Amino acid sequence: MKQLKETAAFLKERTGMEPGVGIILGSGLGGLVEEINISHRIAYEDIPGFPVSTVEGHDGRLIFGELGGKEVVAMQGRFHYYEGYPMEKVTLPVRVMRLLGVHTLFVSNAAGGLNPAFEAGDLMIIRDHINMFPENPLRGPNIDELGTRFPEMSETYCKKLIGQAKRIAADNNIRFQSGVYIGSPGPTLETPAEYRMFHKLGADATGMSTVPEIITARHAGMRCFGISVITNLSEQSEMDKPTTHEEVQSVAGTAAPRMTLVFKKLIESL
Ligand code: HPA
After folding, report:
1. How far is the CA of 79 from the centre of ligand 1 (A)?
2. 2-268 domain in CATH 1.10.3290.10?
């Protein structure tokens, strides 16, 4: 808690801002930043207590500014469990956001589509998730100042925001899906058998992030909304057509403007 408070105090002092909206941008989805009226850009390496992002395509900056008429703080690049960070570090930025005053968290990610109705480039509004990480980020002594020992998870993704997002997408002729995201550690993509298993477990899309951040956000009482950009399909693996990181980035890039529009209008409507 001491480190969290120090990091939050540093950012408050540096920016003079106490944003109510937090945004986490996934692989290839950093383009949303161009829509932000930016007042501060701070590299992770310059933030005390922050880990430093290592993956290509993840920029590693905290952006403060205004989007849709609201003060926002956005992570351009996130910390993944597969990079080797302990869960405490993966989720540290979310807790720092909470201490800054963030009440609503928007997350995005690139994900593999498991639902046969999905197409590459689709947006999937996350309705719920399944945690397949080998641990829960809340394991260990509870930080009572942030939230309760046994957080309730019946409405992890805010139904009201989901409804609003669907209306916004429909009004703007944006094709969208909604479904369950299953988060697993990576860094391997799934074998064909694993993709089939995840679909049988009830998931529509799979990726290597989001779940730890959302659990931590819900623990701290934040309202959550998420979009997965479907960058590849599990059926590719059945046809021995490998998915590459470049493909994931490039498909995410083509879908990013649609995701950005939904986020922006949703934030406007808050
Ligand atoms: N699996 C896991 N993570 C991913 C995938 C996938 O197929 N595509 C993009 N991120």
Report:
1. 16
2. no
